[in-house]
Amino acid sequence: MREAQLDSHDGKRKCETLWPIFKIAHQKSRYIYDLYYRRNEISKELYEFCLDQGYADRNLIAKWKKLANKKDHLWVKWVNVVYLRGHTWSRCCPTSSSTWAWRRLCKVEDKMLDGFCGNWWLNEGNDYTVSQGYQWLCPTDEVVPWYPKIWTRMCLPKHSFISWLYMHMRLQTRERMCKFGYAGDICCCLCADSVENIRHLFFVCPYSAICLQLIAGNLKMSIPDTGTWELWDQTRFPSLLHKQVIMAALCALIYQVWKARNHSLHNGVLIRPEIWVKSLIPELVFRCKNMATDRSS
């Protein structure tokens, strides 16, 4: 103990003396690293020139890159020690004592194993990316015919999203909720005459049919006796702009009918169709005028 107290601590004092010099080199290396990897303000050639000329410390930058890429992630080390224990992931089976997250990861691994072993991820030594994994799971690039009619610049995003759910038959109507254990009334919230499903709401229901007639009257277009998709698919328009305005109006109408349904369900109040359409038209006109002006400019 006495020897420790009498120790001059020369090594510590030497490090404290030299630290201002090391700090300058550290900050310079950090600055060059940030310029290239984080800000993307210098080219790869200039970055490599700085390393070759000694303006930046290669070893320090290698450590920062390793931390940024999470090569030494603590969770990965924990998984290797606790679960894998020297085995490959494909041979590891989760036990009843495994955490929920680990069991879910093993299920995902079972799905992706064929792509990892039988495709380019393992054979060519490339790093895995989420986008490429998704393309392997969904290899078909088929585009549905209604896609360009819904996702247009004329449509508000909220209108496009509800219309997208409608085309996929995924709106949570009362009939659909019965599949998930809903035991309440399944009559339509707008007319109370039929079972509430997507086919009825758009546009068999008298309430939504009136909304459709009001919109068609404002746009001066005829309404065939078929459903919404047939209306979009079979109608011919004099110009592309006219077509986009009609599509935007129909998407907005689907959104407003669904909004009226939710308002009736949650608030117990059914607002007249004329009021919904009256609030819809100015919003639609404003959107279409802005988009048309942006395109012309």
From TrEMBL:
Positions of the Reverse transcriptase zinc-binding domain: 128-208
UniProt GO cellular component terms: spliceosomal complex
Pfam families registered for this protein in UniProt: BUD31, zf-RVT
GO biological process, one term: mRNA splicing, via spliceosome
InterPro entries, per the entry: BUD31, RVT-Znf
Family: Belongs to the BUD31 (G10) family.
The protein, known as: Reverse transcriptase zinc-binding domain-containing protein
Natural source organism: Saponaria officinalis
Biological classification of the source: Eukaryota, Viridiplantae, Streptophyta, Embryophyta, Tracheophyta
